[in-house]
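Note to self: keep these together.
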Amino acid sequence: SNYRKQTKNKDLNINIVCDLKDTLMQQEKSVSIRHISGDRKIVQITVPRGVKNNDRIRYTGLGDASFQELTPGDLYVTITVSNETNFQIDGNHLYCTHTLNCFDAITGTVVSIKSLDNTTLNVTINSGTQNGTMFSLKKQGLYEHGSPNRGNIVLVVAIKIPENLKQDQLNIIKDWQKEINY
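Structure:
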């Protein structure tokens, strides 16, 4: 028979939730683990900077230890990253849409957005910016796992056309349009 004597305690699996902004730094967490014997133990784990949703991290020797004469099992931690922000995640990049009225797009303006760690970032929107134009804010995105490399925040411009202009305002725009050679 291919019965082998157990040489190691069981591996254990748990899930933990991290907030998106918490992935910007290494985190120390206390987690409660239920051993096969039914005992609960609290263990300290270090979650590296830059973890992504569904990452699975192995912690050697932090698993089950019900049988004292056997090597402890390993602990596998699956990460769920919760995103309560307005950013869409694409790898290490964070995308956000900013709606501008068309006159700001025509004349140019400065837009302020909040980064993941709540810093205010100013983006210069040049005169003549078109709908869908993307502005990249370098190294304001997520970190690559275990690396100093960091993605960008990408601001996507959506241009809003005013819907309730009065006839005299529309006439001014029509006159103005005749002077512009498209």
